[in-house]
Amino acid sequence: MLPPPNAQWLVVGAAGMLGRDLTACLARRGIGAAPLDRHALDVTDAAATFAAVARHRPAVVVNCAAWTAVDAAEARPGEAMKVNGDGPAHLARACRASGARLLQLSTDYVFAGDARVPYRELDPPDPRTSYGRSKLAGERAVLEILPEAGYVVRTAWLYGAGGRNFVSTMIRLEARQETVTVVDDQHGQPTWSADLAERLVALGTAALRDAAPPGVYHATNTGAATWCGLARETFALLGADPGRVRPTTSEALGRPAPRPGFSVLDQGRWREAGLEPLRDWRRALAAALPALCAAAGRPGPER
């Protein structure tokens, strides 16, 4: 992926689901962008990272590059830390030298996942997994190195047309299986990557006007669901019987890394930047489904 020189924005990890949506969003708004996939820039390489930022001289850098394999991070924590912890630190130092703002994507996994009310941006993190610890290390590096120009954007439960994700899996399984079994004891916020991309552009634009204070922002579609609830809503939008989705427990799956039982995020800081939080997750899912169905090679829901 060969980017144009001297773009206004630099999108790191541009070949992923969110990176693709962000690049498309910037193009629709006529904002110059240099999309760099992992072959064009390995964020674990400090020298290459510094050189890329210096070469493109962006006003805003958005880091969508991440190790997202939660279970694999338990077995390979050092590798996850290089990508999720060291990579953001390299980008932050490069942005400090160039004067760019940095938007660092992070995750609900930085919290313990045992709350009863939504986590606020300033609540103390307490990750319970190697993945969560690596993402928290990246957060802290950005905030420490770029106190006036670093933005940590935590999101969760991402789905979109440009990559593998839970909703796309449910679309495929609905067509192939009579029933599916899905966890019903994890509560979070399904988030459409295209909606998140729109908010990232809005936040970065506000940051360039000095209208958005640096620090931590939560960016998820609002409301809350379980994975089972999300699957049932997907089936219903497809015109299928939601009862075909059967609930199970996290314990029954026995995954290596524990999943947060409750990781709903509060969106309070958006209004400090004069911006609206993301819309309700059900509205977003209904809007996203035609594109997800097209990506899965099946007809979309009838309107």
Fold and architecture overview:
This protein is α/β, with parallel strands linked by helices and 303 residues long. It has a domain at 9-165 and 191-223 and 263-280: Rossmann fold (3-Layer(aba) Sandwich), CATH 3.40.50.720. It is built from ten helices and twelve strands. It has a six-stranded parallel beta sheet, with helices on both faces. Helix 5 links the parallel strand 4 (101-107) and strand 5. Helix 6 crosses helix 8 (227-237). The two termini are 37 Å apart. The mean pLDDT is 94.
CATH class of the domain at 9-165 and 191-223 and 263-280: Alpha Beta
Q: Considering DSSP H and I runs of 4 or more, what fraction of the residues is helical? A: 40-55%
- Strands of the widest sheet, in order across it, are 2-1-3-4-5-10
- Main sheet summary: 6 strands, parallel
Question: What's a concise summary of this model?
Answer:
This protein is of the alpha/beta class and about 300 residues long. It has helices at about 15-30, 45-55, 70-75, 75-100, 130-145, 165-175, 195-210, 225-235, 250-255, 280-295, and strands spanning about 10, 35, 60-65, 100-105, 150-155, 160, 180-185, 185-190, 190, 215-220, 225, 245-250.
